[in-house]
Design brief:
By secondary structure, this protein is mostly helical. The chain has one domain (35-238): Heme Oxygenase, Chain A (Up-down Bundle). It is built from 12 helices and no strands. It has helices spanning 2-13, 18-32, 38-44, 50-75, 81-95, 103-114, 118-121, 129-144, 147-152, 157-174, 183-206, 210-238. The chain starts with a helix and ends in a 16-residue tail after the last helix.
Amino acid sequence: MATESATIAGLETDLLSRKELRDRLQAVGDSRYHHRHPFHLRMHQGELTRGQLQAWALNRYYYQSRIPIKDSLLLAKSDDPAFRRAWRKRILDHDGDQDGYGGVEKWIQLAEASGLSREQVIPCNGVLPGVRYAVDAYLALVRDSSLLVAVASSLTELFSRDLISLRMDQMRIHYPYLTPGLAYFVGRLTQAPEDATFAFDYVATHATTRAQQEQVIQALEAKCAILWAQLDAIDYAYVVPGNIPPGAFVPSSE
């Protein structure tokens, strides 16, 4: 019995190769990434109304607008100038280097294409409580964790390019009125893979024990859960059963 326990303990401490770590992360994405969520499946099948897409765009804006804040929290954890120079690219990608050019602005343009005004979107007054709690949990995860875990939480970008490509194709087919607002997704087709490559290289290099590698995997699982929770809240409020909480955005009758 003691020999068996020692063997099990030994297996648990064996360091994963880069390929094994990448495969473990891919398995998390295959099973837990929000490409499988019923709301996204409905979206890609053309089953959502304009009002439901407006609700999604508005609520997702809260997440988009917090990404540069998340990245600023992450930057503050590093004392390596080279790392900070590489990571701050993400803030420029979202905020832009001048008004009107970043991903956050492009998301507002998507919301406008859905029929919302920027005055409705930017204050985030109609954001669902469940979405707000989930996004705030992401900020807390980055703020309160090690730099390794914070970087690992961004690794959903390993899977996002395929979802973005599918989403753009299906939106052009089923929701052509959104086509003028797809610039955000066009940018992410190149930005996300670049960011994912950097983040994976970082965690693969700096997770030097099996315990740290497991922390990386758990961080990705936590991020997938946060993304899933956002869609749960949107689906519950605006699709099934359609229970919109007080103070949340209410689509116009269609």
